[in-house]
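JOB MANIFEST
job_type = single_chain_structure
chain_count = 1
residues = 332
[input]
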Amino acid sequence: MATIELEPVDRIRITILIDNVTDALLADQPGVARLNWPRMFNGAVPRARALALASPETGVPDALIAEPGFSALVRVTVGGRERTLLFDTGVSPNGMVENMRRLGIDPGEIEVLVLSHGHWDHVTGTEGLVRVLGRRGLPVMIHPEFWNRRRISFPGLDPAELPVTSRGSLEDMGFAIVEQRQPSFLLDGAVLITGEVDRTTPFETGFRGHEARRGGVWEPDPLILDDQALVVRVRDRGLVVLTGCGHAGIVNTVRYVRRLTGHEALAAVVGGFHLSGPMFEPIIEPTVEAFAELAPALLAPAHCTGWKAVHRLAARFPDAFVMPTVGTTITV
């Protein structure tokens, strides 16, 4: 594989806008800022009127919304200039933009949208984004298989078709769709989108029972080939890898990024690792062992990673582990 020269950036800030968990009692860590109760009561978020209180008009801090989906705002600093993109948009039309409002984030800063894959829990918030931005031709980066009709088909159960994104609807909303199967650069080369990820590990074999409709018939689709990750190389720190669900396998993804860029140092791995539930829990241990070799300086397993995997990673890598919650900002 020919390597791609990824120019270093000075800094990356990843703010979690949608995740499965919110926790206002977590404290800051080095490089990790939390939206916790002290900050909320000191004006970090708006207040909501509350009739049950002695002073209803004073209200309570408008706590952030957690949903079973994922979205992150990514800010990259190069040469003193900060560039902004949005990675995924969450599971509901309103959750992501409402959290942006409460966090004081201006959606108008967003220069490009990256959708990690076609599952609805990463896409549906596009509606809310357009409602606050208007039809402004925002580029949206996707893999060509993003549009596939999909369903879950398990033995003994009726197949359940998943919500699918409409290309026509995204275009009507004003998005400029950019399909790319191969790796591609964004923001003047500061950010790399992996495109389709090579599958090399023996244990990350995909999502059994996941099917796609092709040529009028349902076919096995365990690999979910449209799954892609975002990569930045921070000067003197190493690679930062951001995933949505990590359907390509989180270890596959990180190893692919290292081969693709020719750089091995891992400053951070953040996002969904898809290790939840009886189908994926058997690969928690080989994943943990692989991370021992990959040695990321920061490890933030979000969204679909699952509580068993999160606890295992926290126990094995206490110095690297970060619990990503809605409103968490990771700076590398």
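[summary]
The longest helix spans residues 250-261.
DSSP finds seven helices and 20 strands in the chain.
exit_status = 0
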